[in-house]
Amino acid sequence: MASLLYALLTWIVLLMMIHASLAKPLCHPDESSALMEFKSSFQINRTYFHCVPKVESWSLHRLGDCCSWDGVQCDTNGHVTGLDLSNSCLFGTITANSSLFHLLRLESLNLAFNDFNNSSIPYGFGNLSRLQNLNLSYSKTSGNVPSDISLLSRLISLDLSRGWNLVIPNVNNFVQNFTMLRELDLSYISISSPFPHVLANFSSLKSVKLVNSRLHGEFPVSIFQLPNLEVLDISVNYNLSGSIPEQQWGSPLKSLSLWRTNFSGEIPISIGNLVFLSLSECHFSGSLPSSLGNLSQLAHMDISNNKFHGHIPASFANLTELSFLDLGDIQLSGPFPSSFENLTRLVWLRLSYNNLQGEIPNSLWELKNLEFLGLSGNNLSGTVDLHKLNNLEVLQLDFNNISFVNKTEISTTPPNLSHLYLDSCNLHEFPKFLGYLRKLDSVSLSHNNIGGSIPMWMWNGSRETLSHIDLSHNTLTGFENGHNDLPLPKLLHLDISSNILKTELPSPPPLTNYYNISNNILFGGIQSICGARSLIVLDLSNNSLNGTIPSCLGNIDSLSILNLGKNKLEGTIPLAYPKGCVLKMIDLTENRLQGLVPRSLVNCSMLEYLNLGYNQILDGFPLWLSKLTELKAIILKSNKFHGPIETYRSHFNFSNLHIMDLSSNSFNGELPSKLFQSFHAMKVVVHQDKLEYMNTHEELPLSSNTSFLVVWEKVLDFGMKLMSKGIEREYSKVPYALKEIDLSNNKFKGCIPDIIGDLKSLVWLNLSNNILTGSIPPSLANLTLLESLDLSQNNLSGEIPQQLVQLNFLSSFDVSHNQLSGAIPQGSQFNTFKIDSFAMNEGLCGSPLPKNCTIVGDNLPLPPSLEEENDKESPFNLDWKVVLIGTGLGFPIGFVLGNSIIDEKNMWFLHYSKIIAGRWNRLGRH
Ligand SMILES: *[C@@H]1O[C@H](CO)[C@@H](O)[C@H](O)[C@H]1NC(C)=O
Ligand SMILES: *[C@@H]1O[C@H](CO)[C@@H](O)[C@H](O)[C@H]1NC(C)=O
Ligand SMILES: *[C@@H]1O[C@H](CO)[C@@H](O)[C@H](O)[C@H]1NC(C)=O
Ligand SMILES: *[C@@H]1O[C@H](CO)[C@@H](O)[C@H](O)[C@H]1NC(C)=O
Ligand SMILES: *[C@@H]1O[C@H](CO)[C@@H](O)[C@H](O)[C@H]1NC(C)=O
Ligand SMILES: *[C@@H]1O[C@H](CO)[C@@H](O)[C@H](O)[C@H]1NC(C)=O
Ligand SMILES: *[C@@H]1O[C@H](CO)[C@@H](O)[C@H](O)[C@H]1NC(C)=O
């Protein structure tokens, strides 16, 4: 039986070989040896994603006819005309003398998805003068694209996209000979010029893709008139301006992608017959034309992040082919469209961050194919019924007023739900269905009214998948049955801040990188933190934690943000860094810490913020901090620091410092002129268009799946308690432009150095309650941004310099309790200061003091013209009202946090939309 089968097979194979040799001539030996030589110039590296090493089967001995080799095509004369080695695991470089360039009959060459090891594309392709199709995309090539490719005037398709670091120096020259071209893809090549206008003459063009090519200037409208153009993708060219023309749509355009460009204007009434439309993150405006509803083939519409207005046109009900619709963040208003019931193909839908009002129509819950549903940040209400949405993966309902239907059966929960955002949804309890979800990765329930303990059933189904939990800003009191070992091995991100948890510190699972349980009533020690070896952000501030700081914190070499402020920690600061230190922020304020500032901090070269205020640290001034050139804020206030700050030998380099608060210590000696001199950041006035805050951006891995690394960027603001205008306040964030020096309540003696007048961007200066003598230097008049100046409780003498009336922003001024004399300057801001500002200076006279100045010298009051300036409110004052803690607790904090949540969600969304877009592209291609 077996031998019979063998005979049969042999016979079939023989028959096939005879047939093959009769059908076409064998390939030419010079071409087969050129191919073999090409093969041997590469290694095979199978690590490239899903590659197939076609060349491995090539051999001169077995069936030597190269025309039958995998990836090789011949014409009827046996000449090699096509070579498709895309995704073939090739690793190596192509050189100018490569045998590839001997295959002079090649018409089609595809080497995409290989690894050319970041090498440049050689000269030589210009020899292959019959080439019609050339594809080197995704192949790790770099450098200038060789100009001899421009000779290939028969090219029909050219794809050099997504190399590594490719450059085309003169794109108009480069493409000018390609008059037959139908498809062009130069995406991710640095072109850095205006759009190549010569393309407008190539009437065969069907597809043009120049994504992320650093194009600038004005996009030529004539491209829209190309008679055969179906695909135009020029997205991610931030400086490319243009508009969509109202008429002259000569082309049968199917796919138009302009996202992240500088395109503006309105969407015209007539917009062809598109299948794919992506205009997000541009500057489009106006209302959405109802005619968009005529795009009966439209499958993908993303017009998010523009500045439209008005309602969603009712005609959208006719877009029944839509599978992707993003109308997020485009300033729409009005009711939720009732007309989406027929959009049954939607794989998701995003209407987030608009101003939509009212009930969500029940028909929404009938859209069975939805995978992504984003309704965040509207004013929607209603009941959510997920039981038909079996494909749902991402649900964003945060910042609405929404409740859930009460069905708890397993069958009603979307089996694939992985990302659930229900922040600020007015929830009073944990939604029951959470416990039945089996693939939950991220859950965010912040800013609700959920009280009681955190139930263990919540992770019944998703114990092995949960990586991200945000329960912050609720009224949670603890963990069910005191279980504070979280049984979540994949957990990366845990935020339970701003609750009323009264338990011991829950132990973070080992992979946790973000751990924030600040603003609770946690008690006991913090040793259990040592189990987490991947921490990047650790915030346990504002609790009642006691005991010592464990030295293990010095071994967590990923730690960037350490905030243990406002607890009852005692002992010394043990932070030693045997493995190096990447800390950017250390906040240990308001504890009971003693001893010295650890010298090992000098290894933390990225440190931007150091707050040791309100402890019992007994040390001299840590001069060596000046090695940390990134430092922006140093706060040592209310400790037992002592001694002089500088000696004749001191050298300082605090060139980036914005805030130096050494108040309420026992420093003595002269005021440190050399220190002031090193504050270079305080010497320049930088004008900013918008208010920016002192903060740091942390990249946090979103998933523990290392083969698919997604990070999100979290902005962490530097908060601090500051003394402003005589009142101490807690600021949750501090404007970047605030420059402050506070040396008050020490024992500094001697004069105020003139050099302070060089710190031109100083906003607050406090030298009060020292033993300073001499006069007030007139150079202070150069601090034109100064808002608050406190020199009270010293032994200053002489007159108040008249020049100080130039300080237009000065709203708080205190020189009381000194020995000043002469006339108080008059005019401008000085007209607004009260008696208290000048009290207890025997020699002072003039308004607001009752004592008149008898001798009128040259200190005449300024002319009243300057007084118009009095109403000027400081640029800071206005905006700071938003961020003050203590007053109006609810709104400002919610607002601030709300914003950061929005950013993060958008990050995730972008990522998701790329997956969907990719899916669409794949479908579209086949
Ligand atoms: C294969 O490619 C991977 C990734 O580029 C690289 O790390 C590895 O060293 C390569 N292997 C060989 C044998 O070249
Ligand atoms: C265009 O092709 C012609 C003829 O092949 C050649 O002489 C010329 O140099 C090419 N132009 C460019 C810019 O390469
Ligand atoms: C949908 O299209 C039909 C046919 O073109 C039209 O009659 C109808 O008014 C459209 N619906 C809406 C809501 O615009
Ligand atoms: C949805 O489709 C049905 C059936 O084709 C039609 O009767 C209904 O009017 C459509 N609804 C909307 C809002 O267009
Ligand atoms: C939801 O469940 C609670 C008990 O868990 C019950 O008291 C309430 O009536 C239910 N609501 C609805 C709408 O079924
Ligand atoms: C920490 O506080 C707890 C009470 O909350 C107390 O029992 C314990 O002794 C304190 N530990 C230290 C080291 O002070
Ligand atoms: C203010 O600065 C200018 C130059 O920056 C300097 O010439 C002038 O003397 C300073 N004024 C005072 C009062 O020190």
- How large, in whole angstroms, is the Cα Rg? 35 Å
Bound molecules: 2-acetamido-2-deoxy-beta-D-glucopyranose
What is the distance, rounded to the nearest whole angstrom, between the alpha carbons of the first and last residues?
44 Å
Shape verdict: globular
The total of beta strands comes to 61
Mean pLDDT: 84
Helix and strand content put the structural class at mainly beta
Low-confidence segments, ≥5 residues, pLDDT <50?
11-22, 406-411, 856-926
DSSP helix count?
6
- Which sheet architecture does the biggest sheet show? 30 strands, mixed
Instruction: Please give the share of residues in helix.
Output: under 10%
How are the SSEs placed, and which strands pair?
Elements: H1 2-23, H2 29-40, E1 43-44, E2 72-74, E3 80-84, E4 90-91, E5 108-110, E6 119-120, E7 133-135, E8 141-144, E9 157-159, E10 165-167, H3 171-175, E11 183-185, E12 207-209, E13 216-218, E14 231-233, E15 237-242, E16 255-257, E17 261-265, E18 276-278, E19 283-287, E20 300-302, E21 307-309, E22 324-326, E23 333-335, E24 348-350, E25 355-359, E26 372-374, E27 379-384, E28 394-396, E29 401-404, E30 419-421, E31 442-444, E32 451-454, E33 468-470, E34 475-479, E35 493-495, E36 514-516, E37 523-524, E38 537-539, E39 544-548, E40 561-563, E41 568-571, E42 585-587, E43 592-593, E44 609-611, E45 633-635, E46 642-644, E47 659-661, E48 666-670, H4 673-677, E49 695-701, E50 711-717, E51 720-724, E52 727-731, E53 740-742, E54 747-750, E55 764-766, E56 771-772, E57 788-790, E58 797-798, E59 812-814, E60 819-823, E61 843-845, H5 875-883, H6 890-925
Parallel strand pairs: 3-5, 5-7, 6-8, 7-9, 8-10, 9-11, 11-12, 12-14, 13-15, 14-16, 15-17, 16-18, 17-19, 18-20, 19-21, 20-22, 22-24, 23-25, 24-26, 25-27, 26-28, 27-29, 28-30, 30-31, 31-33, 32-34, 33-35, 35-36, 36-38, 37-39, 38-40, 39-41, 40-42, 41-43, 42-44, 44-45, 45-47, 46-48, 47-53, 48-54, ...
Antiparallel strand pairs: 1-4, 2-3, 49-50, 51-52
The protein binds 2-acetamido-2-deoxy-beta-D-glucopyranose (7 copies).
